[in-house]
Amino acid sequence: MSHAHHAAFESFWSSAALILVALVYLRGWLRLRSADSVQGWRAGSFLLGLLLIWVAMASPLAALDQEMLTAHMIQHLLLMSVASPCILLGAPVRPLLFGVPRRLVPALNRAFRSAAMQQLGTVLTNPAVCWLAAAGTLIVWHIPAVFMFGMRSEVWHGIEQASFLVSGILFWWPVVQPWPSTVKWPEWSILLYLFLATLPCDILSGFLVFCDRVVYPLYLSSAQAFALSALADQQRAGALMWTCVTVIYLIAGAIVTARLLVPQRVREGSTAQPESRAVAAPHTDARSMGA
């Protein structure tokens, strides 16, 4: 299958999957709206995250990742650093559970309440595991041999994009702490967490910016079609990642710092909201749910 045909095929199924997720979320959000437990801005954040995933994986930008390293880097930044926190800020767990068909609820309830699933969730949301997953994904997929393998294999290219999205969601989980997460480390440690996360990005982006040779031979000929040498394209991609990641993490760090400066009792009073204890029966009257 040619790259153009595969890109169109992949774009169709990615778009269909994202539309389905959006419909399920909106269905659940509308059912929860009467209880005012998921604010409107959270629904907007979730839908924005899905839109950014579509831009990275199914829009015309996705077709350029074989032509320019800059476009490929924009994909990674959207999936890992922008779309992922937007998805988590949308408090996705409860709206998605309330949005699935009624007949699936008992099976989902049993699965999520099982000891194995809860233990897996505890391990995956540990900040150390989240940090290592994001750093490992970033470094491994930018090793030249692995990078070229992913670009030449359609299946592995899809796995690469999915891994950036999943590791991005894991990375931002301790920072955003969506329901039903619990605080495991002191809140001030998130500042150190964000700072340490910049180090792998700084090393990789600095290498791409200051390297005097083209690291990924795939772009030796293709970048010239855009009146840009492959080396200049590589330097631009590295500078883009360096700048964007630094700015995003600085914004997140500023928000965490502002929260730390607010007294605990004020935060608890301003962020308190009703949470459902009826996961096993998410289609009951939302007004009757316990806090």
Could you walk me through the main structural features you see in this protein, from its secondary elements to its overall organization?
With 291 residues, this protein is mainly α. It has one domain. It is 73% helix and 0% strand. The chain contains 14 helices and no strands. Helix 1 packs across helix 5 and helix 4 runs parallel beside helix 13. The longest helix has 32 residues. It is globular and about 55 Å long. The protein starts with a helix and ends in a 20-residue tail after the last helix.
Topology:
Layout (H helix, E strand, L loop, with lengths): L2 H31 L6 H18 L2 H4 L5 H21 L3 H7 L5 H9 L1 H10 L2 H15 L2 H9 L1 H23 L12 H22 L8 H4 L7 H32 L2 H8 L20
Helix pairs in contact: 1-2, 1-5, 2-4, 4-10, 4-13, 8-10, 8-11, 9-10, 11-13
Mean pLDDT equals 83
Q: Could you list the spans in which at least 5 consecutive residues all have pLDDT below 50?
A: 1-6, 271-291
Number of helices: 14
**Rg to the nearest angstrom?**
21 Å
Query: Alpha-carbon distance between the termini?
Result: 53 Å
Count of spatially separate domains:
1
β-strand amount: under 5%
Instruction: Work out the helicity level.
Output: over 70%
Counted beta strands: 0
- Content-based structural category: mainly alpha
Q: Outline, from the CA principal axes? A: globular
Major sheet summary line: none
N to C succession of SSEs:
HHHHHHHHHHHHHH
Summarize the structure.
The protein contains 14 helices and no strands.
Key terms:
291 residues; 73% helix; mainly alpha
